[in-house]
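pinned: reference chain
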Amino acid sequence: MSPTGRPEGENRSARAGGPASADDTPLVIAHTESSSGWGGQEIRILAESRGFLDRGHSVTLYADPDSRIAAEAPRRGVPLVVVPIARKRPAGIFALAAAFKRLRPRIVNTHSSTDSWLAAIACKLVRDPPVVVRTRHVSVPVPDNLGTRWLYRQACARVITTGEALREQLVETNGLDPARVESIPTGIDPAMFAETSRAAARATLGLPDDAPVVGIVATLRSWKGHRHLVDAFARLADPRARLLVVGEGPQREALERQIAASPARSRILLTGHRDDVAPCFAALDVFALPSTAHEGVPQALLQAMFAGIPCVTTGAGAIGEIARDGNTAIVVPPADPGALAAAIDRLFADPALGARLAANAAAYVTPRYGYATMLDRMEAAFRRALAEAPAPS
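pinned: its structure tokens
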């Protein structure tokens, strides 16, 4: 058997979506996700899984039966095994161990705290265990205690972050070996924005063609800053302006109450979740992401840049890796509706500035944050983890 768990010589003749590598042997990958929510993290897991499947690898997702990602996986053609991993309980450990023994993945890529703990322990119950790769999607600090030191320094072969700021945090604050931690931001497929008409997009959404439109596409979570954007929108100078809010999440009711109380409520459109976000970006004159915390390199901000939309954002988390004030975006302080409104007004009033920022942003992100680039880098990280793993006893 090869190190991937496949018979020797069972190689692909070609890799869709990426160049051939020195080692072209198919990988056998398990993704674990205990989250019940839905956002950029879960979308990345499914997109990455689909990409690896298209390249000829074996991929299986292990998720809780009541989670949103478990419902979405079959729709996207990602093989799924449901296991009780929503909470840190022994049943989840034993279910994962049994599944790993049965399907024999060689790499287990964990994503949230709960499934990382459960999978790391489950792997200790498996003969010839898979290597564990931990992906960190948010900049929430990691506690520096005996347990997390074991998880990050011993149980995990490598740690992946979705932004360099998150990587630096783990190295500097938690003392992880920098050679074992790398930043691989989420990749965006530029084809999804290739042919989307602004007029058609606005007609679909019921937005007037002659009004300036600012929008946000993000899960409705407190740290995404929706409340600050709603406050800022009421201060905009142009009374024709519209605000498009795309997304669903735990802050829905609070945001609906805030919108109902806003003097600009009749000009705010809250769409809920949409699978096809390309028309939403095409309808915008300005994209705003006023996050206050916890960000890696946000997918929605990258999508707006790929779509050629001028952006206003903050420096939260790893956002500064793509948003450079006055060059690729306008960057304002977090939780400052006045500064946010002034930046949006500035872009509405100066289309040339917006075009320059959008062009600079697209030129910067296109060669660095493409979907194929992410897949290439993740595959290389997985192969390094396998190569560095101790030989089975």
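why pinned: The domain at 190-365 is CATH 3.40.50.2000 (Rossmann fold). The radius of gyration is 22 Å.
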